[in-house]
Amino acid sequence: MEVFDAVLTDRGSKYAVSGGPVASREEAVTFVKTLCRKKKFAKATHNTWAVLLPGGPLKNDDGESGAGMVILRMLEREGLEGHIVVVTRWYGGVKLGGDRFRRVQDAVRYYFDHRL
Length: 116
Fold this sequence. Notes:
- By secondary structure, the chain is α+β, with helices and mostly antiparallel strands.
- It has a five-stranded antiparallel beta sheet, with helices on both faces.
- It is about 35% helix and about 35% strand.
- The N and C termini lie close together (about 10 Å).
- The protein has four helices and five strands.
- It has helices at about 25-35, 40, 65-80, 100-115, and strands at about 1-10, 15-20, 45-55, 55-60, 85-90.
């Protein structure tokens, strides 16, 4: 599991991005649960994630409507299968509107650029 904390901020909202290999829906759910064992991530407003698996893609918006699809599309373009990416947001008190999708993209790009 790779975790990049505080990768960006926008109008008070803070973002982190995490990821790692998973081979099934169960492993994806376990990955997110493991991440949320860290108190900071458990208290986050959203832990949005997606993964491309042989049985089909999976995503979870965790209340950030449409964000899971943004991550999924980026995984498809990257051709990264069997690897979950989780974008975490701590809401800063100002609604970002459509910019929230740009911040999700920025976080996923950061992950792609910095993962081992």
